[in-house]
């Protein structure tokens, strides 16, 4: 097969249809904003104003969501002028309040049960968090967040979470971590991939293609792409005129009508759902969104790992002054400093995208 036989990028109303996991509409335009909190508050306020008077419960939940949005923003703004360890605590409170907005927007009625973080750092532990026990009397924010993201956390699979594993789950600091040899005897696990939604020449069928550079075969363990769940979804395609990339095509091929909104509303979510369990995560870069395939099927969603990372920093800052000195001045110092700079914007923009079901992005001039 030649590369042009892979198909052309699917268009809707003359706009390319891109893969995004946010439940956005096919071909939706980017929401370019330098202030994700302001956009989210405006979005929620608009929803609040549009609710009819007889929907008291929905209005009340939206009011709570707006409150937690403002709280999240205030904690983040305070963190900008704070130094570690205070900065870590403020970031955690910013993250968890935005998580509450996400939960409320997904139907959770908070304030009705005891809410707890869902994590703890035992007094005799230095780098191992523990998952909280679950019961019907309370809500574990960490567990419910993961569940709503579609990545359930089961306590019977183990309650220990190692700080080093959380760090390794963050693509933002993956390269610097390996440059500092923080994870010996392991290989890099976040594979940069290009995902396209394509159509045949007749524009009657749509499907997914995935590609990655062959050079990563030497840097990473890419055997995941030759077995298991991945091979149930994708098949390898030999492209004779491209020696740089490996190419794959989805086994799911859907008949569609390219100029029908109804057809897009049915077909686009089906394509996205078909790859929802193989661990593809977005990251905002200088050139827009890029996607990374987790080659090791990590236990946690990337956003859950950021939340767990911030919980650890905040807990150490509040309760473990001796351990705080060890952590901040130990082997993880450089990557922690990098993560507290690079992770917040990723967390905010991606989670706001999930909440609003829009593709929120940083204007190019604002990417740091």
Class derived from helix and strand content = alpha+beta
Our estimate of the beta-strand percent is 15-25%
Helix content: 40-55%
The coarse overall form would be: globular
Order of helices and strands: EEEEHHHEEEEHEHHEEHHEEEHEEHHHE
Termini gap: 40 Å
Sheet with the most strands? 8 strands, antiparallel
- Integer average pLDDT: 92
> Uncertain segments of ≥5 residues (pLDDT<50)?
none
How would you explain this protein's 3D organization?
The chain has 368 residues and is of the alpha+beta class. The chain has 2 domains: 3-23 and 190-294, no CATH class; 33-164 and 311-366, no CATH class. 42% of the residues lie in helices and 19% in strands. It is built from 12 helices and 17 strands. It has helices spanning 36-50, 56-80, 86-105, 141-148, 163-168, 174-179, 216-219, 228-233, 261-274, 302-319, 321-328, 333-356, and strands spanning 8-9, 11-12, 15-16, 30-32, 114-116, 119-120, 128-131, 138-140, 160-162, 190-199, 205-213, 234-237, 245-250, 254-255, 280-285, 288-294, 359-361. The strands form 5 sheets. Strands 1, 10, 11, 12, 13, 14, 15 and 16 form an 8-stranded antiparallel β-sheet that branches. Strand 2 (11-12) and strand 3 (15-16) form a beta hairpin. Helix 1 packs antiparallel against helix 2, helix 2 packs antiparallel against helix 3 (86-105) and helix 3 runs parallel beside helix 12. The relative contact order is 0.19. The model has no long low-confidence stretch (mean pLDDT 92).
